[in-house]
Amino acid sequence: MTREETWQRLVTIGVVEGDIPEGPFKLSEVDLSEADLWGADLRGADLRGADLRGADLTGANLTGAELTGAEFSEANLTGADLRGADLWGADLTGADLDFSCLPLWCGGQEAKINSRLAKQFLAHALSFECKDKEYSDLRELAREYCKSSHISRHIEWLKTNETL
How many helices (H) and strands (E) does the chain have? Predict the structure, then answer.
C-alpha cells in the first residue's frame, strides 16, 4: 500500500481528515483497534499511545515509527518492518510477530510481551553459532523453555541435543 493509499484508508476509518501531510503521520493516541492496515506505509509515523489492539498490520512498514506506549495486543504484525521503531513501553502481548523485522536497539526496552513471544525471541536469539562456553551453557538452560515455542520445529538447535 502506498503512503497515499494508507492516508486514504485512515480517512475512511475516520481517524484523520483532509489532505495527506508532507511529513510523518501524526496519529498519537488514536483508536485504530481492529483496523485493517494490511501493508500500510506508516514509516516514521507518530503512533505514541495509539490503540492498535487486534489491528491487521500484516506487512506494514513501520520503519522508524514512534510507537512508545502503543497497544498492539492481539494485533497481526506478520511480516511487518519495525526496524528503527521505538517500542519503549509498547504492549505486544499476544501480537503475531512471525516473519517481522524487529529493532535490536534500546528503543525496544520495556516493551510488554507474553510467553509465546518470549520463547520465540529467545529461540531466535540463541540460534546463532557461537563457540563460547557461556553461550552454550545459556542455550542449554533455555532449551526446555524454548522447545514449547510455536516455532520450535523450525529452529535447528532445538531439534537436537547437540551443544556447540
Answer: 4, 0
